[in-house]
Amino acid sequence: VQLQASGGGLVQPGGSLRLSCAISGLALEKNNIGWFRQAPGKQRERVSCTSSDDGSAYYADSVKGRFAISRDNAKNTVYLQMNSLKPEDTAVHYCRGSRGASVYWGQGTQVTVSS
Predict the structure, then answer these.
(1) Distance CA 55, CA 28 (A)
(2) How confident is the model at residue 96 (pLDDT cuts 50, 70, 90)?
(3) Average pLDDT over residues 59-72
(4) Residue 40 DSSP code
(5) Strand ranges inside 7-108, DSSP E
(6) β-pairing, 109-113 with 9-11?
(7) Distance between CA 63 and CA 108 in Å, rounded?
(8) Would you call 88 helix, strand, or coil by DSSP?
(9) What residues have CB less than 8 Å from 35, skipping those under 6 apart?
(10) Average pLDDT, rounded, for the chain
(11) CB count, 10 Å around CB of 22?
(12) Is 11 a residue whose pLDDT tops 90?
């Protein structure tokens, strides 16, 4: 199982980025996929996730209205569209696949929001 996150970078406050999580060895339609992030000196936190059961999405309060998660089952890829970025969004962002007790993490992609 591999989850390959990409799309991070340096962006000014108010800008946008789209993260991608390309997944192999895992059936996207049967697994919950989430985005997490970890800022220096802070615990890893859940940002957003999408359920394989009903397609519903969860967003942390800090990103509601700014971020949108989506899936492309044909490409086995999950995206996180991030708009109106703030300096406090600066963190390494990770994607995670899970089903029951099985959890798979990808490597992170750095997002830096700074002027």
Answers:
(1) 11
(2) very high
(3) 96
(4) T
(5) 9-11, 17-24, 32-38, 45-50, 57-59, 67-72, 77-82, 91-99, 102-105
(6) parallel
(7) 18
(8) helix
(9) 19, 21, 46, 47, 48, 49, 69, 78, 80, 93, 94, 95, 96
(10) 95
(11) 16
(12) yes
Q: Pairing between strand 67-72 and 109-113?
A: unpaired
Q: How confident is the model at residue 55 (pLDDT cuts 50, 70, 90)?
A: confident
Secondary element (H or E) of residue 5: strand 2-6
**3-state secondary structure at position 30:** helix
Amino acid at 5: A
CA 13 to chain centre: 19
Tell the residue number behind the tokens 């802070």, with chain if given.
Answer: 42
